[in-house]
Structure formats: C-alpha cells, structure tokens
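note to self: the first set is below, dont mix up w the second
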Amino acid sequence: MNDLLKKISIIIKIIFNLFSLSNILSLNLLNLCDQIRIITPASLSVTIIMAFFLGLVFSLQIVKEFLYLNAINLIGSVLTIAFLRELSPVLTSVILIGKIGSYFTSELATMKITEQIDVLYILRIHPINYLILPRVIAFVIIMPLLNFVSFVTSLISSSFICSILYNIDPQIFFVSAFSSLSFLDILKSCFKTIIFGFFISIISCVWGLTTQGGAKGVGLSTTSSVVISLLSIFVIDFILSYYMFDNLDSVLSSF
C-alpha cells in the first residue's frame, strides 16, 4: 500500500512538473537530445520489421476473403483503416514497451539501488527534472513519428503481397487506400500514440525510481512495469477508440 501511494505521489509530481513552464524552460536540452538519440535508433529498425511482417500477415488473412466477395476495391481501404486506427499505434507501443520502457525502468532502478539518485539530491539536482522529464518528453515526441513509419511500412508490405500473391495492381490498392484516408484519422492516430507514450514513459520511470531490494528488485520492477504498461495501453486504447471513432457510419459507405 505504501509503495502504491509512493508511485502515485511521484506520478502527480511528474505531471505537475510537465505543466510547469519554469521546469520546461530549464529542461536540459542536451539530456533531451540524448534520450531521443537513444530511443530512435533502438526502435526504428524493430518497428519497421514488425510493421512489414504485420502487413504481410494481416493481408494474407484478409485479402482472400475480399476476393471471394469480389470486393477488390475495398481491400486498400479496410487495411488502411485497420493499420491507421488500431494496429500501428498499439503494436508500435508494444514494441516500445519491450524495447525502451524496460530500458528506462532497469536503468533508473539500477541508479536507485546503487544510491546514484541520492547523489543527485546532494548536488541539489531534482531527479524528476533531470531524469524523468527528458525521458517522458522524448518518448512523446518519438512515438507519433514511429507510428507513421509503421503505418507507411505496413501499407507498402500489404501492397507488395497483394501484388505478388493475388495479382492486385498496386495502383488499385493505393487508390482504394487513399480514398479512405482522412487527415482527421491521422491526427487521431497521432493523438493516440502521444497518450500511449505519456503513460508508457511515466509508468516505466516511476517503477524504476521506486525500486527496492537490490538486483532482484530491479528484475521485479522491470517485469512489473512492462506488464502494467501493456495492460494500460489496451485499456486506454479501448477508451480512446470508443470516444474518437464512435461514429456508426461506415467509412466504406461512399464506395
């Protein structure tokens, strides 16, 4: 119970500091750029590979059903909607939880049990401003970019397998895809990833800062932060999808 209250207290402090103009202006830009440099190369290649095979597998299961219904003009539209609204944001978040979230937790947990956090207090450096805010902001900045890369990669791989296996002209595929693509959906998808990134980074950092019990505690904190982040993402995804895509009219009604 005390551990939970401590985590909640740190989360409140982080949110307060994020909306404090003085803390944002005094943010160490070198530290922020360093976090972006760590996150981007470590995640980009994995995200591209995941998105490529996601497009292949999803298309492999879906396209043949549309061909059976003689609805070839709907294939690109349905895949675009699925990737943009749900699959790309959620699966990109899952990749970053395992790749970056666990890294944040284990790094901060190690600093905690080796008393490096206490040294920051001695130097009059607040750990939240110095360690957590750059990580949270960097995560929130990078998430929409990786989501867009994932979306584009998935569409390209889907077009590829449609052309190779089902002899569907890429021009037909992309005309169908772009006909259902709206700027509002792109903004909503980006907003989703920003919210996901905010929760993933905060959970990962807070679980690291509240680690206790030596090396065993580092492992427990890392495992716990990954599980809690995954559960949080799926719950938040349902809530956001319910309110952002609650229009009962089909996007395909114009076809």
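second set (the one i keep forgetting abt)
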Amino acid sequence: MINKGFRQVVGCIPYRYRKTNESSSIEELEVLVISSQKGQGMLFPKGGWEMDESMKDAAKRETLEEAGVTGKVEENLGMWQYKSKRQDIWHESHMFPLLVNQQLDQWPEKNLRKRKWMTVAQAREVCPHGWMKEALEELVKRQMKNQRDEKADGTTRT
C-alpha cells in the first residue's frame, strides 16, 4: 500500500524468554532474526500490507511467511521512515512485538531464509538497519517497564 508517497511496511520482532540456566528462575529476552533475501545481515520479518487486512494481521502474516513463527501480536512499537537501499522509494514501517508461542518446522520461506534466536545484544550487532535497532530498543524499554510494573503489583508474566 502507498500512503503519501511512502510504501507501507509492517513487521514484527518475534521474542521469547529463555531461562538462563537450569537452577535459575531468571529469564533472558531473546529475539528471532532472519537472513535477508537479497543482502547481507540479519533482520526482523517485515513486508507490505494491503487495505483488506489490518496492520497487525499483515505483520503476523509476514512473520509466519518469513520466519515460521506465530504468537500474540502486541501493541505497535512505533513508526519509522527509511529509504530503500536498492530503489529510490521511501518506506513507512510499523513494527510490532510478537510473543512467540509456536515455531514451525515448515514455513513458506524456509528455503529462502535462515532464522536464529539470539540475545538483544547479539541482534544489535547483526542487524544492519538503524530503524530496526530503534524498534528493538523500544521493545526492550517496554519489556523492562512491564517487568517493573509486575514486580510492583505482585503479578507475573504469562
């Protein structure tokens, strides 16, 4: 979809929590990155969306197609504008967190992409796109706030 000269793009940052060791209840935030189809580096799943679907539905569809995971799409992390590296086109991208509840063995782009779970620090290193790193930082800030809120009111993450 094109909006005011910008191609509309939506995507997800798939994430999960992993226990850091067998005897610990401490969990570490991990994110799933995928290989770029045409370029170098790892990135988060994203793609175009059409008028017949919501941004959240499109983001979830792109994540299933490109990364082979499904889960709960959460509230928009924000909007970023960037210029395509290969074309003279500006994109307006909305990114959503996706709490992964299923990782598929087979998915549409399995033969085109590699996927890898990694820590936030590792993802910062391998992702070549500044706007995606900003979206990742927004996810980290939100998760830290949620953890503080849970501690304050005595609830736990589900």
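remember for set 2: The domain at 2-155 is CATH 3.90.79.10 (Nucleoside Triphosphate Pyrophosphohydrolase).
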